[in-house]
Amino acid sequence: MTDEVRLRDVAEAAGVSIATASRALTGRNRVSASTTAHVTAVARRLGYQVNSVGRALREGSTRTVGMTVPVIGNPYFAQLVDAVEGALVEPGLELLIADSHGDVDHEARRLRTLVGRQIDGLVVVPADVERSAPALRAARRHAPVVQLDRRVEGLTTDFVGVDNALGMRVVVDHLVDRGARSVVLVGADDVTSAGVERREGFEAAVARTGLEVHAPLLDDFSLEAGQRAAEELVARGPLPDAVVAADDLLAVGVVTTLRRLGVDVPGRVLVTGFDGTVIAGITEPALTTVVQPFAALAQEVTRTLLARIADGSAPTRQSRISPELLVRASTTRP
Predict the structure, then answer these.
(1) How far is residue 275 from each of residues 63, 155, 191, 242, measured CA to CA in Å?
(2) Rounded to two decimals, what is the model's pTM?
(3) What CA–CA distance (Å, rounded) separates 258 from 39?
(4) Residue limits of the HTH lacI-type domain (predicted)?
């Protein structure tokens, strides 16, 4: 045996044919679970590595999926990436991640790099609701594209995301139940579809109630934007009974700054978040937040992408998944 372990070596050691060993190691059918487990164990013991280039040439597939997100440091996107990577395990696909840093030029370069790797498909969280369109159109010429969480106006692709309008409706109804009579939205500008949809969802929800609505504070989805919003709220006064933040980072910024400025949360002001990230549970007080179903989103975007890879001419799919409200201390007065 040479220093490089070949498929033939694995087959001989496992006592199976080369064809059986190949099917077992590449996840193809017609191989029993016990045989697959046995061959895989032998391959691992021998240190065999699948020749991905050769397999790609044979199958016309690299078994890789590319994914771009605006800010990987945002806990929401980190959890989303983790969920998508987990969902791709069962179909035997690997995930390549690229961070666009919320910049359309960066995004275009990242997409060109990914399609240059001969990926089988792309999952894209667009950086901009309008300006991301040219880069996504160019990428779509080389690989199937599914937009996730955010979408580009006027671009016809498959899309998977949460029902933002429903999320805002359950938040507003909860605050009314908690006795709030006035409310303000701390949200994002019109750069992303999520920012637009949550603002519009908030406006539609409060229109159904008798809530007094303060002028919104719109910036971006960041901790710093939440801090600036809280300082502005205190400066302009009087304070509303409740603050609806369009994501958890904004909400944490609002809560920590209000408390630093001597405003009791939730005693004086109720605060809610959106996304259900890990930081929502560790801030003080813990955030009431709209929880995005990460696993369900990941499973749906995987199914949608695989269907698009299998049939590029099928009608596009638009999937909206319902979120749930998790009530915690930030809206629970003593």
Answers:
(1) 30, 25, 18, 18
(2) 0.81
(3) 60
(4) 5-59
The whole-angstrom separation of Cα 230 and Cα 98 is 32
- Tokens found for residue 30: 């017609």
Q: Are 115 and 143 in contact (CB under 8 A)?
A: yes
Q: What is the pLDDT of residues 127-171, one digit of tens each?
A: 999 999 999 999 999 999 999 999 998 899 999 999 999 999 999
> Any long-range contacts for 136-144 (C-beta under 8 Å, 24+ apart)?
136/111, 138/108, 138/111, 138/112, 139/111, 139/112, 139/114, 139/115, 142/115, 143/66, 143/114, 143/115, 143/119, 144/120, 144/305, 144/308, 144/309, 144/312
Asked whether residue 56 is assigned to any structural domain, the reply reads no
Instruction: Write out residues in the chain with pLDDT < 50, as ranges.
Output: 1-2, 53, 56-58
Please give the structure tokens belonging to residue 311. Answer: 């049939």
Q: What is the DSSP letter of 32?
A: -
Task: Let me know: does 323 contact 290? Beta carbons within 8 Å.
Answer: yes
- Give the tokens for residue 268: 């004086």
Query: Cα separation of 171 and 178, whole Å?
Result: 11
Which domain CATH number covers 34? 1.10.260.40
Q: What is the CATH number of the domain that holds 99?
A: 3.40.50.2300
Q: 15 and 78: one domain? A: no
CA separation for the pair 92, 309 (Å, rounded): 14
Nearest to 52 by CA among 40, 64, 62, 66: 62
Burial of residue 256 (number of CB atoms within 10 Å: 0-12, 13-18, 19+) = middle
Our count of domains for the chain comes to 3
Structural domain boundaries, residue 13: 7-50
- Model confidence pLDDT, tens digit, residues 9-48: 888 999 988 878 877 877 655 678 888 889 888 888 888 8
Q: Which two tokens stand for residue 155?
A: 């671009």
Residues 298 and 287 in one domain: no
Q: Quote the tokens at residue 6.
A: 């070949």
CB neighbours of residue 101 within 10 Å = 15
Any idea how long the chain is? 334
What distance in Å separates the CA atoms of residue 287 and residue 271, rounded to the nearest whole number?
A: 7
pLDDT of 183: 98
Average pLDDT score over the chain:
91
